[in-house]
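Handout, section B. The chain below has 230 residues.
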Amino acid sequence: MPPPTINAVLKSAPFAPHLSRAHLLRLRREVLLRHIPAGTPLCHKTHQAGHWAGVVQGAVKIHALSPTGRSTTLATFTPGCWFGEGTLLKHECWPFDATAIEDTLVALMPASTFHWLLERSLGFNRFLLDQLNARLGQFIGRCEHARLHHSSRHVAHCISELTDSRLYPDTGNRHLGMSQEELASLAGVSRQIVNRTLGELEDIGAVRVSYGALTLIDPEGLRRFSESFE
């Protein structure tokens, strides 16, 4: 299947309905598409942020590395997700590394274009406000869940996050190219706990597990499992 055109990418972007024709014309000239092979960095911590990034195909994780080499995943972005607005708004360097989990196509909006749009579109500002609020709620909810629930329920919660249409617009795609190791890093648990939890979720018909991926079968059942107490 041929890669999508920049016109198709912008037309399907979650913020597109908020923009005027003039805004979209400029974006068509300045937003770039870039292929990122699996395992390849998209941006590096401490480097100056020069773009706002959107995932078109594939998946990207943002993660942090300790001085001892321990890595933790902060969030995973699937098609339709745009990220990095907080860093651009503060004119800062990237506070994390971003790496393609699988072969990925991203759209890159230059920082200058991002700020130009910010100054001229009330609708774009509202979109960013809604996204930042949803992302804040995601991290507060994850922190609360990790402290109050069993680790197996927290693994399910981290998977269930990916069905939130406010943060993951392409919720119709229920196939997630995420290995058990990646899921363990996202949930902050061992791979053994992830393996056991996925077995439980398969038993209740919530997910189907395959090599390096999983498919969501029953998102509502997944959510109920994640919120239950043992």
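Note. The CA atoms of residues 184 and 191 lie 5 Å apart. Compare this with the example in section A.
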